[in-house]
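Section 3.1 - Work completed
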Amino acid sequence: MNKGKYIYAQLTDFIPRRVFDGIVDKYDGNKYVKSFSCWDQLLCMVFGQLIFCESMRELMYSLEAHKTKFYHLDFGNNVARRTLGETNEKRSYKIFEDFACVLMAEARKSYYKNDFEINIEGNVHLRLIYV
């Protein structure tokens, strides 16, 4: 198994799927969806973050290069640029905003383990891809 795939698998295993699905249900994110779910969209964006994509075009080229591994990356059979682009336009950003808040809250909790404590003042920022 190559290192990139291993790191990706570790990251996606960490994602609390039930929490994400609850948020998706709250905003009807998968309403009228036949094949490309909010979960698929999230996995594509996680992949993009992991390989430092800075644009939709770069993400799509990277995804196309790994087309034979889609099944193992949990993307399903196909991810088309048009599908991902339309999905990013039509789905509520609030799904991912709420989920990011959940993950940041979990990250803050993880700083306080045993006798080890990190004092963070101010905000914690995430690197986002704007597409």
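Second construct:
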Amino acid sequence: MNRVVLIPTLVTLANAYCGVLAIYKTADGKFLAAAYLILLAMLFDVLDGIVARLARAQSTFGGYLDSLSDAVSFGAAPVFLVKTVVEANYPWPALDGGFGYHPKLLTALTIPFAVLAIVRLARYNVEHASSEGSDSSGQGIATFAGIPTPGAAGIIASLVMICYGEHSGDFFKPLIIALPPLCFLLGAAMVSRIPYAHFGSRFLKGRRDFSYLFMVLVLIIVAILFPEEAAAIGFLAYGISGPILMLFGKKPTEVENVLDDADIPEGV
């Protein structure tokens, strides 16, 4: 492995490292830290494609390594986080006449998320046999078929963040009860043909005017001041954007639309 290829590979492995560390933090009961690590893994997932493109080091090896890292960070880590958080807040048997998740029900609702994340990653590799974010001919894709694994994991992580964040208190804690069925729905959404916009190609490509730059700056300031709330709103908005696109006429057969230029590589 030469020095040029080593750099994007290390960035991809940083993604996997964050995923494994998120599992460790979850096991230690540090749920907020685990959720932030999943988001940090997303940052490395975006950066590895950009670095590989700048270094002209895109390869089949890098694509498969990226998918394996995603399976850990956006498949195993989020579902283990949900399982542990729910067991900590809604134990079985239920206490004081409250609600509790039976272990078998919790397993049935959460494991499909991790399994279907792996299926989605494998399907993406088959359907886009070149570099990440490109179709088999090397052109950048404009729309994903099904919600990308980082997007699904981000919804889970951001909801945990808002439940355990600095400004949450106990107000958002009831959201935890909805995490297992949400896991099941997100698993199905990942392997569906619901169209989801490719974030990089839609919002990071091309020239923008000053108003767009100002809006981005405002969003960054809000995210710094209220990180948990901003993450939850952003990921939930992306989660519902796919059904809205389909509702307004975006057909599943259109998900392979391509761009004129190579896009910014992004998680699948």
